[in-house]
Design goal:
It contains four helices and four strands. It is of the alpha+beta class. It has one domain. Strands 1-2 form a two-stranded antiparallel ribbon. It starts with a helix and ends with a strand.
Length: 85
């Protein structure tokens, strides 16, 4: 059911509908949003940016730590790091 709701919201966005979405679905937020507003404790705005800026270069430590929960690093045989989402 989650996928169906996300698909519907994506369709609405393509139609130009304005939405305010609260989600922990980071891949979906990155794909659909034109602005990301990251809230902290008590609902205060911690950071506001374009999706590209927020996901590639978060300005606050709180946002960086939050985004780390959605990625992991693994080691390859050559001791290189690979980052995945």
């Amino acid at each position: 059911m989650v996928r169906e709701v996300l698909d519907l919201m994506m369709d609405l966005a393509k139609e130009g509908k304005t939405m305010i979405i609260v989600t922990h679905q980071m891949a979906f937020a990155r794909a659909i949003a034109d602005r990301i507003i990251f809230l902290g404790e008590g609902g205060n705005i911690v950071e506001e940016a374009s999706p590209e800026e927020f996901f590639t270069n978060p300005k606050t430590e709180r946002a960086r730590n939050f985004l780390k929960t959605f990625t992991f690093e693994s080691r390859t045989a050559g001791n290189e790091h690979i980052q995945s989402e």
